[in-house]
Prior knowledge:
- This protein is α/β, with parallel strands linked by helices.
- Among the domains are: 29-69 and 76-310, NagB/RpiA/CoA transferase-like (Rossmann fold), CATH 3.40.50; 433-487, no CATH class.
- The chain contains 22 helices and 10 strands.
- Strands 1-10-7-4-2-3 form a 6-stranded parallel beta sheet, sandwiched between helices.
- α9 packs across α10 (195-212).
- Residues 321-392 form the 4Fe-4S ferredoxin-type domain.
Amino acid sequence: MSSTFLGMPTATGFxxxxxxxxxxxxxxxxxxxxxxxxxxxxxxIRAKRLRAVAELxxxxxxxxxxxxxxxxxxxxxxxLLEELERNVTARGGVVHWxxxxxxxxxxxxxxxxxxxxxxxxxxxxxxxxxxGLNEHLEAEGIAALETDLAxxxxxxxxxxxxxxxxxxxxxxxxxxxxxxxxxxxxxxxGLTDEPRELAMAARSYLRQxxxxxxxxxxxxxxxxxxxxxxxxxxxxxxxxxxxxxxxTLITVMGIEKVVPSFADMEVFLQLLPRSSTAxxxxxxxxxxxxxxxxxxxxxxxxxxxxxxxxxxxxDPEGRSALHCIRCSACLNVCPVYERVGGHAYGSVYPGPxxxxxxxxxxxxxxKTDVNAxxxxxxxxxxxxxxxxxxxxxxxxxxxxxxxxxxxxxxxAGGRPxxxxxxxxxxxxxxxxxxxxxxxxxxxxxxxxxxGGFRRLPGPGAGWTAARDMPSPPSATFRRRWRDRxxxxxxxxxxxxxxx
Length: 499
């Protein structure tokens, strides 16, 4: 286990599930409807994103610029956060610091009560999902209404988000119609599954809430340290309503969302929409700086959330996970996510970025820690790095976290796993030519011409539980190379099965 994971506070909230990824993935793979929904949605988004990105000749330069700004931010994060606090305060806002999710939930609850409210409207926010704010408020007798359409679908369906950008990606139109008919107050029993009808039903339900609710809670996509300006980007207009109509606005923001200057937002406001919704620009980009008398919320509170981010920042090899701008591009190109969906990851952060971010936020607590399985939820194909707008090297980070997970398991259990023993045996064979030759020869035993072994025995059974074992070729490379050297014509004459 990396020494930087020791002696630091860990994340609280919904960053660790209750099942390992392999166990949860088995159930997801058995859901044919889920797989069809995911394949259709991610395939559509991938194609649109490629077209949007191809419009810019300087896309790679923009990615490099985004990576550079994020690296600069992480290198001097404490001073930038202090600068942000000074500028927010100077413009009439109040800044609160939350060590973990529990502290952030207490701060928000106290602020809502101080405003005399029993109900709040919410802009889509990964940070509040991470800390379980809705559940905490409900336990305190405060109703929290999600206003993003996909988040509303998840909330009414008593479900959990399964995607960073499209939380209800695992639902199709018919399922959404059934949820609205069953759970949305005032919904027309004859509501159809036409997208426009579904959207209008949600709009009618939410409009009165926007006009009467006195407290709104939001996240933030970016915050400029030099001006104290915060920004939320969205596609429906619900965010604009929440950010302008209520009297009190409370923003919960992960500390990594700060950028050094207002001008730096220019880079990310080009990268984010093309990578997420495949649009040239977001339909709604809302920015606010403190409080303006007579215009918009008259009380503004900014809750800066750590919740394990400091421990990630302390690891030079892992801190680039904090560069993430929550675009979800890595999820849409990941072959693993496309087949199992977001719920299998347990954490509110699914997909490739969740596989590296969640274990770092929580730390690794031994072989029984379900988050220790997340770094293995990848083929290491590298598609996530190619798609990432800020060039997070997720594959390299996954390899490191796999090593950390193995070390943590051995430290906690005292004995290496069957997989670790198998890898050690393979390493011993692969570093000795004669051993390797003997191993290849042994592996060719069996009725290969009849289809070969479909399942491996012993420790290999877990690998072939969801994969077919391919039959070996008719001749090994060693045999073909030997034949090329002795043939004289350069042709491979041997077809035998020896090593």
